[in-house]
Amino acid sequence: xxxxxxxxxxxxxxxxxxxxxxxxxxxxxxxxxxxxxxxxxxxxxxxxxxxxxxxxxxxxxxxxxxxxxxxxxxxxxxxxxxxxxxxxxxxxxxxxxxxxxxxxxxxxxxxxxxxxxxxxxxxxx
Length: 125
What we know:
Blueprint: E1 12-14, H1 23-32, E2 36-39, H2 47-51, E3 55-62, E4 68-70, E5 74-82, H3 98-104
Parallel strand pairs: 2-5
Antiparallel strand pairs: 1-4, 3-5
């Protein structure tokens, strides 16, 4: 039986300050020191899927900045949606204009010639 002692010093990193950063920047700051930023909603969707639509600012973090954490540990962040560059043009799916729909329409082959057309006038290739 072996008893593991504390992790070697090179496995510990200082938790970066994240409060006030945009969520994407907070994720990058964590990754730069081998930590993983995660949402405070453990049962919800992933951090990326919750924040791709808009501009979100970190309002709290755990552990606090400056504390030591082992590489690959998680930093739990709380965030709110703020006004920002993406708010003016939130990515909302819209129906393409009718002209686009017609341009993409696949022509259908007629199943039978129209009644007024002579029989040899329509090709069913």
